[in-house]
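Form 12-C: Joint structure prediction
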Amino acid sequence: MKRILVSNDDGIDADGIRALAAALEAVGEVTVVAPEREQSAASHSLTLHKPLRIYERGPRRFAVSGTPTDCVNMAVHHIMPAPPDIVVSGINRGANLGDDVTYSGTVSAAMEGTLLGIPSVAFSQIMWRPTPFDGAARFAADLVRQMLERGAAGEMLPPDTLLNVNVPDLPWEAFRGVRWTVQGKRRFTKEQVVEKTDPRGRKYYWVGGSDLEWEGNPDSDHSAVTQGYISVTPVHLDLTNHDALRRLRDWRLDAGGRPPA
Ligand SMILES: [Mg+2]
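Section 2 - Result
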């Protein structure tokens, strides 16, 4: 039986992870290792300056007093008797589209799995309007089954690559289909930071206060979900811009007259 590690950033008691774990029970042996409390926007942080605690919540169910990245590490290196065949993160309450991927704790759990050499996939449910997790959970079970059927780690996904899945805020019957997509791009506006005044007359700020605009790339994750499609983006962990590297080689990088390497 295939071993499936499930984690998230909304915390072990979130509806999204419950729906995901329940749907994946039909696909393999599910172990849940998730943050004790919400860690949204934790990105890829690790807890280094305080101890971590594990709380057993039931058979193969563990809460950890840390980030999603801590959870995947603890699961693989300490909690699970053998490493999982796949790491599945989510289902996040809310989109992880475009540049938001870099802030996302949900995607970071999948990044950590990928760094450890385990095929990994992150699921997020768009929540522009309140939507139950059933449709996303059903798709997650189908996709994870399909990935596991592809065989060993190397055959499932290309190296250093995870799948970032965003599911539109629609019931299962209303999905128009599934699309392979590229990461979209937001236009940052001045209203990104909202300035207010507190009762004592001092200014305070909220980040991410306004509606966001997106560049209109028809191949993007954002375009897919707004048109009712499930978006699947392959995300590569090598952040090197190889095209830029070729072009920048002409620059004469100088370190105090030392000859270039
Ligand atoms: Mg979250």
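Section 3 - Comments
The first helix runs from residue 15 to 24. The pocket of magnesium ion is lined by residues 9-10, 40, 92-93, 105-106 (CB under 6 Å).
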